[in-house]
Write a structure and sequence with these properties.
It is a single chain. The chain is mainly alpha-helical. The chain has one domain. It is built from two helices and no strands. It comes from human gut metagenome.
């Protein structure tokens, strides 16, 4: 059995994680400049996890605002 040669290796998948999702387009442009054969490779932007977390944080923020407003109104009515 013969081993693999350097020319036998091919990219099958790569996952890039970013610390700042707002810069994902910049990261994609940087990756596209690499020496990957883009005729045989697709680059897919997947920000679903960020959008889900962002949506949850927005909902939580709205709940906190309603509770804070309710506590203020309740405190004023008690005084």
């Amino acid at each position: 059995i013969e081993g693999y040669k350097p020319a036998d290796y091919k990219l099958s998948a790569a996952v890039y994680f970013v610390s700042n999702p707002n810069q994902i387009d910049k990261i994609i442009n940087t990756v596209k400049k690499s020496k990957i054969d883009w005729k045989q490779t697709d680059l897919v932007k997947n920000s679903k996890a960020f959008e889900a977390v962002s949506s949850s944080v927005t909902s939580l923020k709205q709940i906190i605002n309603v509770l804070t407003f309710s506590i203020i109104i309740g405190s004023i009515s008690v005084l």
